[in-house]
Amino acid sequence: MKTIAIKVLTFTGMRWGVPFIKLFSGEEAKTQLKEIGQTVGIPLAAIVTFLFLWSVTASQIETSLGAVPGPIQVAEQAKSLWIEHVEERAKADAFYERQEIRNAAKLAKNPAATVKIIDYTGKPTYWDQIITSLKTVFMGFVIASLIALPIGVLCGLSKNAMQAMSPIIQVFKPVSPLAWLPIVTMIVSAVYVTNDGFFEKSFIISAITVSLCSLWATLINTSLGVSSVNKDYINVARVLQLSPMKKTFKIVLPATLPLIFTGLRISLGVGWMVLIAAEMLAQNPGLGKFVWDEFQNGSSNSLARIMVAVFTVGIIGFFLDRIMVALQKAVSFDKGAVVA
Amino acid sequence: MAFLELNNVSKGYGEGKNRTEVLRNINLHINEGEFVAIVGFTGSGKTTLVSLINGLLMPDQGEVLFKGEPITGPGHERGVIFQNYSLLPWFTVFQNVVLAVDEVFPHMSKADKEQHVKKYVEMVNLTPALEKRPAELSGGMRQRVAVARALAMNPEMLIMDEPLSALDALTRGTLQEEIIKIWDENKRTALLITNDVDEGILMADRIIPLNPGPNATLGPEFEINIERPRDKTALNSNDDFKKTRNEIIEYLMDIGTEAKTKKINNYTLPDLKPIMPGKIFKKRTEKDRLKYF
Ligand SMILES: Nc1ncnc2c1ncn2[C@@H]1O[C@H](COP(=O)(O)OP(=O)(O)OP(=O)(O)O)[C@@H](O)[C@H]1O
Ligand SMILES: [Mg+2]
What we know:
Chain A is mainly α. Chain A has helices at residues 2-11, 18-24, 29-58, 71-109, 126-157, 159-172, 177-191, 201-227, 231-239, 244-282, 287-297, 302-331; strands at residues 62-63, 66-67. Chain A is globular and about 80 Å long.
C-alpha cells in the first residue's frame, strides 16, 4: 500500500507527497518533517505570501466593476458557482421527473399515445463548461496527434520530407490562435453545413484551432526522435537483418517514444493554453465562453468569477501535465531522463 | 581460398577537406577454423576494420571476400560482438538475446528458442539477470549480454570488437575460456580485436598488429604456436609465451613512438625554438631541421 502510493506520487512527479506517507507510516519522524518543511513548507509559505500581497494590492485598485477582488471574494465566487451547479442539476432532475410523471399518466390513459421526451434546456453550469473545455482540448489534441505523428515519422525518416516540411513548420508554428480562428471559422462554416451534426460547429472550430496551434511540438519532436535514433541501435537492426516492420516497431519506435511523448506533452499544454482564446471567439460553451460572458456581463462579481476561471485553467493544466508525465515515464526506457 | 579475405582494402571517412583516411592497403587472410587476433592502439581503425568485415561498411578500395564471395552487407553467418555492447535498452536481457535468435532460427519452436537463449545467458552467468534491462546492469554484465547474443546466433564466423575490455580479470578469464571452448567445439572461425596482448596470445593462432592511423596498415603477423588448451597461469612461465609477448610489445612500442613522433612533427609550431626530447630529436629528418632552425 505504502510503496504503491509512493510509486504513484513519484511517477506523476508529485514527490512532495512522499514524506507525508512515510511520516504516517511511522518512518523516522525527524527526517520526514524536515523534508516536509522543505518540499511543502517553503511553497506553502510562498503561496500565503502571494495571497497576502494579492489581497492587499487588489483592494487598492478601483475598476469600473468595483475593487479588484481579493482571494476571499474569489473563493466565495467559486463556492457560488458550485452551488449554482448543484441547483441547476436539481432543477434538471425535477424537470425530468415531472416529464416522466406526465408521460406515465398520458400512457396510463391511452396506451397508444406517443410520448415525447424533451431535453432540459437550462444554461450550462460552470462544471458543464469545464467538461466542454476538456472535451474540446482532447478533440483538438487527438486531431493534432493524428496529423503530427505520421508526418513527424515521415520527416524523421526522409531528409527530403524534412526539407519540404521545414519552411511550413517554421512559418506556421508561431501563429497565434487568434489569427487561425477567423480562417477556421470561415472554412468550417463552408464545409460543415449540417445543423444537426454530431458536434456543434463552435466545438469543431475551437478544436481545430487548438490542433493548429498544438500540433507543431509533436511534429518537431517526433521527426527529431526518429531521425536521431542512436546509430548503435540501427546497427543492431542491420546486423540482425531485421525486416523493415520489425526495425520500426522493435527499434525505431521504442527509441523514439520518449521524445514523441515529450512532444505530446508540450502539445497538450499549448492546446490547453490556446483553448481559452479559441473558445472565447468561437463561442464554444466552455471556459473561454464563460470568461467572455462574464466580461460582457460586467456585474460586480464578474472579475472574481473570471479569476476562478483563471485558477481552474491553471489547476487543470497542471493535472493534464502530470498525466502526460506519467505516460511519458511509462513508455521511457530511461526513466530518469523524464523531466518533471 | 581463405575463409575471409581482405585484399588491398582502404577505407576513410568524410569528403574533401574533412576526409580522414583510416585504413590503407589492408591485406588479411583468415582460414577456416582459425582464430586471429588484431591488436592496435585506440583510434587506429580497429572498429572500422570490423565494420568492413561484418558488412556495415563497404571498402573504398579493394575487396572483402567471405568464402570467396564479396561481402555486400551484414549476414547471420558472421556474428558480431560490438565494442559498445549495443544492447537495446527497452528490452530485457532475455528479449535482447531472443531478438537475435528469432532472426537466425525463425523455424525453431518457441520453447526451443527459450531454451536456447537461456543456455547462452547461463553461459555468461547472467541467469539471475534474465529479466533485467540493460540500465540495471553493470558495464561488465552488459558486455556479457552482448557476448551471449552473438554466441546464440551460432555464426560461422565470430567477429569480436574488444568484447572483454570492460570486464574484471576474473570474469574476463572465464569468458576467454568460454569463447575458446565454443570456437574449438564447433570449429568456428574467429576474429578478435583486442588491446590486450596477453589475451591475444592466450586465445589466438595468429596476432596481427594494426599500425596507428591515419592510413593504418597491418603489421607483421606473429604466429602463436603454444599448444592448446592453453592455461592462463601456466602460460606465464612458458618461454614461448614470454618471447612472443616481448616481441609483440616491443613492436607495438616502436610503432607507437614512431606515430607520436610523426604527430609532433606535423604540428606547426610557434616561432620559438622547441626543446625536444632526445629520441624525437634523433629521428628528425633534414627537412624538419630546416623548419625549426
Ligand atoms: N563514422 C565516422 N565518421 C568519421 N570518422 C570516423 C567515423 N568512425 C570512426 N572515425 C574515425 O576513424 C578513426 C578510427 O576509428 P575506429 O573507431 O575504427 O578506431 P578504433 O581502433 O576502433 O578505436 P578504439 O580502440 O577507441 O575503439 C578515428 O580517428 C575516428 O575518429
Ligand atoms: Mg573500436
